[in-house]
Amino acid sequence: MATMAENTLNEKYPNLNTTGRTAVVTGASAGIGAACARALAADGWTVIVGARRREQLAELAEEIGGIAMPLDVTDQESVDAFCSQISRCDLLVNNAGGAKGLDSVEEGDIDEWQWMYDVNVLGTLRLTQALLPLLRSAPEEAGQIINMSSVAGHNVYAGGGGYNAAKFGVAALTRALRIETREEPIRVVEVCPGRVKTDFSLNRFRGDQNQAEEVYADKLNLTAEDIAETVRWIAALPAHMNVDHITLRPRDQI
Ligand code: 8X3
């Protein structure tokens, strides 16, 4: 039987008429996305959260007084359905993304590489294209796009080729977009987290808990909340400022 939270999620939202500053956060059912949604809601933003995991998403929306809608950023129809309900967007946090595998280039799985490009690069592209018209006409002084890139978008490592290629793509897309929109009232920011203790590694290693835990064992790790604090700080900056690129690492990470 569907929980109350799921019922909330399953309701239709005929053209959400949100009032006040409205943020859209993708990949928001857990980890960095959920933490960003919480931090923005605490700062008074109306937050629309999207992700594939419907129950967690709906619970989060209930907790923060936000709006949950199912979203698969790899599926154009899902993106169109999600965005067609939104009538105001002042801030888009393109957070959905992830890694699969740690294979060498020689052993790399084509399907996994394709998925990484799709979710990280094309997912960011799809949401950006769909919401740019609203961001451009945001009633606040400027619309904002914050793309969750990674240190892996600037530094490569053995076994990281597929994920590196995808995050380098996010970095390139973000920089091109910033130049293209520089004369418009739109802030475009690339946030590059290093090692953050979330489900990132569990997903990368296809649910292998031991392998995932090894990534974080005996190390200083960032938390999702550390990244969310930075997103909240950027979102509150005066409209004439752009943070082009910010890197956040735990102190002990190279
Ligand atoms: C993941 C960053 O440092 O864990 O985006 O590879 S790291």
What's the gist of this structure?
The chain has 254 residues and is of the alpha/beta class. The chain has helices spanning 4-10, 31-42, 54-64, 76-84, 110-136, 161-180, 200-204, 209-216, 224-235; strands at 22-26, 46-51, 67-70, 91-94, 143-148, 186-193, 245-248.
How do the helices and strands line up, and which of them pair or pack?
Elements: H1 4-10, E1 22-26, H2 31-42, E2 46-51, H3 54-64, E3 67-70, H4 76-84, E4 91-94, H5 110-136, E5 143-148, H6 161-180, E6 186-193, H7 200-204, H8 209-216, H9 224-235, E7 245-248
Parallel strand pairs: 1-2, 1-4, 2-3, 4-5, 5-6, 6-7
The structure holds 2-hydroxyethylsulfonic acid (8X3).
2-hydroxyethylsulfonic acid is lined by residues 150-152, 193-195.
Q: How would you describe this structure to a colleague?
A:
The protein has a seven-stranded parallel β-sheet, sandwiched between helices. It is built from nine helices and seven strands, in the order αβαβαβαβαβαβαααβ. It has helices spanning 4-10, 31-42, 54-64, 76-84, 110-136, 161-180, 200-204, 209-216, 224-235; strands at residues 22-26, 46-51, 67-70, 91-94, 143-148, 186-193, 245-248. Residues 4-8 have low confidence and may be disordered. Strand 1 (22-26), helix 2 and strand 2 form a beta-alpha-beta unit. The protein has a single domain, classed as NAD(P)-binding Rossmann-like Domain (Rossmann fold, 3-Layer(aba) Sandwich). By secondary structure, it is an alpha/beta fold. Helix 4 runs parallel beside helix 5 (110-136). It binds 2-hydroxyethylsulfonic acid. 2-hydroxyethylsulfonic acid binds at residues 150-152, 193-195.
